[in-house]
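Bumping my old thread because nobody answered last time. Still need a sequence for this structure:
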């Protein structure tokens, strides 16, 4: 079992597939029992195609999500769709409902003087597309997707050069030290932090010199650093050298990232769902949430992403809990699809939100419904082009509440082993006919 689980995270796709096949054989033989799907969901998990703090591949996440009895699960990676086909194949084999998407950063000119959800960076917003039906990008949009990754990688290289100068003699080579930590060349700042931690051990060993080096360079007490590559060290490297105020940081401007409107056009052209992301409601921009959503929705956003775990402490009622409930209410009033998850791209993040706590239990139905909607969208869009953002849906559901109700019903009813049966549906199919098909 341990060997198979390790192989699920191999950089070799064939090895990952063989390991999943072996595990599925054990399920079929009765050696492994998988639970019935429950009600908890995680629709926002990064894989090792951008950065997963536990090194999870798309296949590994699908296995663990099914093993945990999640009702649905979803992958999201920065600037690439590399996880999509693998995750879809794995989740279908496991009988797991799910979908895949992409996250990036965008520029919102209407908020050029206000911080949104990228701390210290006015006008810059993290942004998502969820429920992509496949990774086949239209020719007209291939340059846009290529540009996301190319720009991010060049930004990393420039950042690394500045940080190298400061951390010398601990210096990285991008290809050898950073890209080697990724399966497909899509490194992030978090990969660089891990690479710096390992390069320092390579240079200094585990001696007191290593402790003194990090304490001096990062300006913190050595006892807080969790050496040689623990959570506190990696987070401190990032905060002190790569984020605002750090030696390698350069303030982005309106030319650093694509416009939200252009990004939404790309997502829609690919058959995905444009999704605004919400942090915690404390920034200037998020305090003007109604205006912010007006802008996002005017350019195509029909969903909002929330990371529940970062916005509450069990048993403690504070402003973040209040903000969390308020944004869910705003989303309900606007009939926005609510997507949620834990990310898992930073040490210490949970595999799934604890929707059993007093703070989150009342919101479980909201996140579960959102998961069913985006799952139904991705399946219908892939199989027959009748997704949530399709012309077919626009014709049949002018009322957003009715659209949400329909896609949620489809998501609840359809089972992964019956998804391909929807391929016979088409533009002349009515919503009632879709429901009858999935309920058979």
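Sorry it took so long. Here it is:
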């Amino acid at each position: 079992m341990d060997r198979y689980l390790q192989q699920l995270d191999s950089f070799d796709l064939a090895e990952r597939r063989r390991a999943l096949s072996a595990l599925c054989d054990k399920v079929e033989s009765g050696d492994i029992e998988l639970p019935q799907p429950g009600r908890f969901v995680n629709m926002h998990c990064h894989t090792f195609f951008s950065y997963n703090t536990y090194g999870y591949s798309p296949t590994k996440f699908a296995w663990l999500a099914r093993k945990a009895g999640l009702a649905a699960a979803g992958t999201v990676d920065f600037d690439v769709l590399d996880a999509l086909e693998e995750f879809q194949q794995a989740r279908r084999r496991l009988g797991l409902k799910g979908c895949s998407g992409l996250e990036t950063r965008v520029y919102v000119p209407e908020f050029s003087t206000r911080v949104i959800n990228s701390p210290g960076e006015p006008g810059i917003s993290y942004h998502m597309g969820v429920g992509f039906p496949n990774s086949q990008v239209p020719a007209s949009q291939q340059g846009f997707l290529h540009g996301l990754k190319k720009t991010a990688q060049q930004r990393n290289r420039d950042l690394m050069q500045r940080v190298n100068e400061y951390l010398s003699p601990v210096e990285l080579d991008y290809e050898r030290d950073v890209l080697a930590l990724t399966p497909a060349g899509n490194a992030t700042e978090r990969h660089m932090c891990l690479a710096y931690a390992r390069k320092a051990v390579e240079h200094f060993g585990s001696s007191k010199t290593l402790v003194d080096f990090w304490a001096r360079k990062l300006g913190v007490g050595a006892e807080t650093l969790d050496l040689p590559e623990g959570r506190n060290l990696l987070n401190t490297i990032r905060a002190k050298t790569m984020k605002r105020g750090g030696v390698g940081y350069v303030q982005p401007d309106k030319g650093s990232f694509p416009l939200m409107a252009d990004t939404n056009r790309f997502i829609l052209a690919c058959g995905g769902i444009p999704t605004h992301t919400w942090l915690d409601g404390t920034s200037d921009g998020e305090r003007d949430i109604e205006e912010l959503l007006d802008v996002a929705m005017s350019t195509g956003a029909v969903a909002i992403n929330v990371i529940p775990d970062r916005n509450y402490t069990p048993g403690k009622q504070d402003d973040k809990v209040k903000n969390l409930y308020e944004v869910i209410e705003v989303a309900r009033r606007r009939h926005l699809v609510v997507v949620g998850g834990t990310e898992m791209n930073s040490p210490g993040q949970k595999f799934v939100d604890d929707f059993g706590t007093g703070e989150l239990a009342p919101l479980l139905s909201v996140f579960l419904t959102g998961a069913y909607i985006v799952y139904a969208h991705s399946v219908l869009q892939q199989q027959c082009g009748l997704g949530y953002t399709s012309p077919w849906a626009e014709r049949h559901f002018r009322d957003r509440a009715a659209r949400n109700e329909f896609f949620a019903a489809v998501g609840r009813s359809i089972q992964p082993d019956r998804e391909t049966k929807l391929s016979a549906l088409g533009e002349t199919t009515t919503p009632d006919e879709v429901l009858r098909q999935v309920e058979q």
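The chain has 17 helices and seven strands. Let me know if any region looks off to you.
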